[in-house]
Design brief:
Phosphotransferase enzyme family protein, 6-stranded antiparallel beta sheet, 2 domains, Aminoglycoside_PTrfase, alpha+beta, Aminoglycoside 3'-phosphotransferase, Chain: A, domain 2, Phosphorylase Kinase, domain 1
Length: about 290
């Protein structure tokens, strides 16, 4: 993402990260003129449909790292990730950073996947469909873990940690050279935010088990799983994906699970369980988020 410098250009410009072959850049003005169909607003990111086959995720809280991740996963696995058409940052814009968070807007143009998210459709799925969708997801998660391991914690291509756990970190968001370095920053952020004498306890808890590093989606909730005709059609929202400790996927998926349906039971067969680490993560997030 471009940063704000004293030597900013006097007028906003399009800074292209990616443009798929055969595609043309759709400017912010052209996007607005297309009368986009607003679909959702998630964590400050706006999502709109501008044609039967194209979706746009845009706003100040959208990161080009997500576009990089989508390309990275699509190149290395058979996981159904929406096809990327274009991604760019637009700015600088004349506005207050403290209000908007950035003087740049990011636009990610991607394929619109026909189907329905699993959060809305799970209760209507038959027992066989639930088993089939779970098997599909387990296959894709196995592929994700099979990507050759990196030697750092962070996002693709040596980028920073994008997970919300370091939202309040005042030191570093990485990338981190090891799980231990990552843990040290989490502990430091926890202590600073809790303002209690918990340093030795939190550090001991974080470092009580050794963990490898695997590629992780980082937000594997039913709302991010698109299904169609009883099969998994796409996994979306890759903004928090990257290289994390091997328990991260499980800990995050169950942190947001409310156990209203039997989805959690299926998830236990999809992801390797890390029960103690999940409780640890919940303790951390009770202060860090």
């Amino acid at each position: 993402m471009p940063e704000l410098y004293d030597s900013m250009p006097t007028s906003p410009k399009i800074n292209v990260l990616y443009l798929a072959p055969g595609q043309e850049i759709i400017s912010p003005e052209q996007f607005e003129a297309s009368n986009p169909e607003a679909l959702d607003t998630v964590a400050g990111a706006q999502i709109a449909k501008i044609s039967p086959s194209m979706l746009v995720k845009y706003g100040t809280h959208v990161s080009l790292i997500e576009a990089k991740t989508m390309l990275y996963v699509a190149e290395r696995t058979s996981i159904p990730v929406p096809k990327l058409y274009a991604a760019y940052a637009y700015g600088p814009l004349d506005r207050d950073v403290s209000d908007f968070g950035s003087v740049y807007d990011t636009y990610i143009f991607m394929e619109f996947i026909e189907g329905e998210d699993l959060e809305r459709s799970w209760e209507r799925c038959t027992a066989i469909e639930r088993q089939t969708i779970s098997a599909d997801l387990k296959k894709y998660m196995t592929e994700l873990r099979a990507i050759p391991a990196a030697d750092y914690i962070g996002s693709v291509h040596g980028g920073p940690v994008t997970d919300v756990i370091l939202e309040w970190s005042t030191t570093s968001k990485g990338p981190f050279r090891s799980v231990e370095d990552f843990n040290a920053t989490i502990a430091e952020t926890f202590v600073a935010k809790s303002k209690g004498h918990v340093g030795p306890y939190i550090r001991g808890m974080l470092n009580s088990h050794k963990h490898g590093i695997v590629f992780t989606h980082g937000d594997l909730r039913p709302a991010n799983i698109i299904v169609r005709d009883g099969r998994l059609a796409a996994i979306v929202d890759w903004e928090m994906a990257g290289w994390y400790p091997d328990y991260w996927e499980f800990a995050k998926a169950f942190y947001i699970e409310h156990f209203i349906t039997e989805w959690a039971t299926h998830l236990l067969g999809i992801l390797t369980p890390y029960y103690c680490e999940q409780l640890m993560y919940s303790k951390l997030m009770s202060v860090l988020w």
